[in-house]
Design a protein that fits this description.
41% of the residues lie in helices and 18% in strands. It is α/β, with parallel strands linked by helices. It has a single domain, classed as HprK N-terminal domain-like (Udp-n-acetylmuramoylalanyl-d-glutamate--2,6- Diaminopimelate Ligase, Chain: A, domain 1, 3-Layer(aba) Sandwich), CATH 3.40.1390.20.
Length: 111
């Protein structure tokens, strides 16, 4: 399933990176500890987090993640948006808690 379908199904707001919504989502990772995400996320995953600082973009780029989804109404810091735009990393916004977002995405992409 591609990012665009997930954005529509979950009614996510695209904060930046709208040109990359055709990317396939292979799975997901939920976490706020950057070292944990680096160690355990995989290429093509969406990352669900409440972190808003620009280091999340560095992690997403390093791991070649499909997107970052900020939950519970979190808004990215301005420098985070600038960096994500430069690097082509989609940042998507959800009002729901991370647990709910993860469950919905799991249902959408699981066979």
């Amino acid at each position: 399933m591609d990012l665009a379908a997930i954005v529509r199904a979950l009614n996510l707001k695209v904060s930046c990176g709208g040109k990359a919504l055709n990317r396939e989502v292979k799975g997901g990772y939920v976490g706020d500890l950057l070292s944990d995400v680096i160690a355990n996320s995989q290429e093509g995953h969406v990352w669900i987090t409440r972190q808003i600082h620009q280091n999340i973009v560095a992690v997403a780029s390093l791991k070649d993640l499909a997107a970052i989804i900020l939950v519970q109404g979190s808004q990215p810091a301005p420098d985070t948006l600038e960096k994500a735009t430069r690097e082509g990393i989609p940042i998507l916004l959800a009002a729901d808690p991370g647990f709910e977002v993860a469950g919905k995405i799991y249902k959408l992409i699981s066979p």
